[in-house]
Automatic annotation (TrEMBL):
PANTHER family the record matches: GLYCOSYLTRANSFERASE, GLYCOSYLTRANSFERASE 2-LIKE DOMAIN-CONTAINING PROTEIN
InterPro entries named among the record's database cross-references: Glyco_trans_2-like, Glycosyltransf_2, Nucleotide-diphossugar_trans
Keywords on record: Transferase
Residues of the Glycosyltransferase 2-like domain: 5-114
Domain of life (superkingdom): Bacteria
Name this polypeptide is given: Glycosyl transferase family A
SUPFAM superfamilies documented for this protein: Nucleotide-diphospho-sugar transferases
Region (Disordered) residue spans: 309-330
Transferase in keyword set: yes
Keyword Transferase among UniProt keywords: yes
Length: 330
């Protein structure tokens, strides 16, 4: 059985990095844990080192300035050696026994398991118990992956793009695949989509092995305008690939249009903030294709604000843990 490199990109993660490192080192299949401190302003690196179990499997690297999650992950992967690569976010954790069902067979290039979403306010995160689901393996094709990443209004957080697969280093090397370092949003989606275009066998298990901590102020929830532009451009690059055909191509085009619309709305709001409503409106009128996204986006934002106001402003109780995919009891 091949061993695993667990890669963790971390920035200002002092409060959570220790739990992430300890959860990875607890897994027998893990040959190394590589943490990259991506220009933190706190003692993330020292806290990560303090979680070492003395096995010699932990390496903590530090970048002098923040370069973003894609660059940090590429740096960690370049400084790791195990045949398999697993990405772990700095505020998440691995559940005990995660890798055993994932590595039971080797008929895949990427293999992902179910995710347990846990509210950051939920008590005793370190000892939480996940439901025991039967693996029920299946393969995910490119069209299914792209469709699972298209946001649908009213659909709760937890799309296919949140899966954290284990990746074969050999496949990445053979196809020259790495994270696009200009991307700080959707970098996982882009890498996995490009791998599927290259013919990756992407296997999914329903057994639960990854704990994702959900918090209202997460970095992934605060998208910069330029980040949306980069994500839309990544879709455009895929659409330029002649290997992308059929239903998958139509779905990538739909994803690109959705992201491009979000970008146009954010650009309008930026211009409104910087130059006033009249100037922002004139700029939007100069881009007729962007007008529907701007008008609909503003209307939806107003509607959502009214709903939040009607729901009251008191502190909400933590939501109970839930899994990304349903499962059958093992």
């Amino acid at each position: 059985m091949d061993s695993v490199s667990v890669v963790i990109a971390a920035m200002n993660a002092r409060d959570t990095i220790g739990r992430a490192v300890r959860s990875a080192l607890a897994e027998a299949e893990v040959a190394e844990v590589v943490v990259v401190d991506d220009g933190s302003r706190d003692d993330t690196a020292a806290t990560a080192r303090a979680a070492d179990d003395g096995s010699g499997r932990l390496a903590v690297l530090e970048l002098g300035k923040n370069r973003g999650p894609s660059a940090a992950r590429n740096h960690a992967i370049a400084h790791s050696q195990a045949p398999l690569i697993a990405i772990l976010d700095a505020d998440d954790f691995l559940l005990p026994g995660r890798f055993k069902p994932m590595l039971a067979e080797d008929d895949w290039d990427f293999v992902a398991d179910n995710i347990l979403f846990v509210d950051a306010a939920w008590p005793a995160l370190d000892s939480i118990e996940a439901p025991r689901f039967a693996p029920e393996p299946r393969f995910l094709d490119l069209a299914g992956f792209i469709e699972g990443n298209i946001s649908r209004r009213g659909k709760e957080r937890g799309e296919i793009g949140f899966l954290k697969p284990v990746m074969r280093r050999r496949f990445l090397a053979e196809h020259g695949l790495s994270y696009r370092e200009e991307m700080r949003l959707g970098e996982d989606y882009d890498l996995y989509a490009r791998a599927l275009i290259c013919g990756a066998r992407y296997k999914i298990l329903h057994s639960v092995g990854y704990g994702a901590v959900v918090r209202a102020n997460s970095l992934s929830g605060r998208h910069r305008t330029v980040d949306l532009h980069c994500l839309a451009d990544a879709d455009a690059a895929m659409l330029a690939d002649p290997q992308l055909t059929g239903r998958a191509r139509r779905l990538v085009a739909e994803h690109e249009a959705h992201v491009r619309g979000r970008f146009e709305l954010r650009r309008f709001l930026d211009q409104k903030s910087e130059r006033g409503l009249a100037q922002a409106g004139l700029a939007a009128l100069a881009r007729p294709a962007a007008l529907p996204a701007v008008v609909l986006g503003i209307a939806r934002d107003k509607f959502d604000a009214l709903q939040r106001r009607g729901a009251g402003s008191g502190p909400a109780a933590p939501l109970p843990p839930r899994t990304l995919m349903p499962g059958r009891a093992a």
